[in-house]
């Protein structure tokens, strides 16, 4: 990973945030660093039957069962065989009033970047490979556009696959 970079006017601000950026294919994505629990190398998962293909299975993370989702497949970018660069970013999501840890498979982690919230632009309604409901905004970082993902919406299992677990 490179050094942390500042995007904006370079002055510390209460309106600044740090993001962890990562790649899926040729696209750059980012999540609020405060939602990142840890970054792990890919390891085989315990598969769960009758779930969508992008739900890879679960891993035991120090006694906690953590679901693993392949973001490349979730976003319709196709399957890519896992390599030594493939990582799992374990994120904390707030869903239905509680915190849940979930892992997302990404092609590679890029950087940690400080972004002034004033440089974040709204998401256009076209030209994005990802459903815009998961995107909080866009920010230009090192001449690349980084899509900032909404962790809670992205990892809400009910919206992912129509989970009927909470219905009677």
Automatic annotation (TrEMBL):
Protein origin, superkingdom: Bacteria
Key words of the record: Cytoplasm
Domain CheW-like, first and last residues per copy: 16-160
One GO location term (cellular component): cytosol
Cleaved signal peptide residues: none
UniProt-listed InterPro entries: CheW, CheW-like_dom_sf, CheW-lke_dom
Biological process, per Gene Ontology: chemotaxis; signal transduction
UniProt subcellular location: Cytoplasm
Main location (coarse class): cytoplasm
Descriptive protein name: Chemotaxis protein CheW
Organism: Methylomarinum roseum
């Amino acid at each position: 990973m490179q050094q942390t970079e500042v995007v904006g006017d370079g002055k510390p601000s209460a309106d600044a945030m740090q993001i962890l950026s990562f790649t899926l294919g040729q696209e750059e994505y980012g999540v609020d660093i405060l939602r990142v629990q840890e970054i792990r190398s890919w390891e085989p998962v315990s598969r769960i039957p009758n779930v969508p293909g992008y739900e890879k299975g679960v891993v035991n993370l120090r006694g906690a069962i953590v679901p693993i989702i392949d973001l490349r497949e979730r976003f319709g970018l196709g399957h890519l065989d896992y390599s030594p660069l493939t990582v799992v970013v374990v994120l904390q999501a707030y869903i239905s009033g509680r915190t849940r840890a979930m892992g997302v498979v990404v092609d590679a982690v890029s950087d940690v970047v400080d972004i002034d919230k004033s440089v974040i632009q709204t998401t256009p309604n076209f030209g994005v490979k990802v459903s815009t409901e998961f995107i909080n905004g866009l920010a230009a970082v090192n001449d690349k556009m980084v899509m900032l993902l909404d962790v809670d919406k992205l990892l809400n299992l009910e919206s992912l696959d129509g989970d009927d677990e909470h219905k009677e």
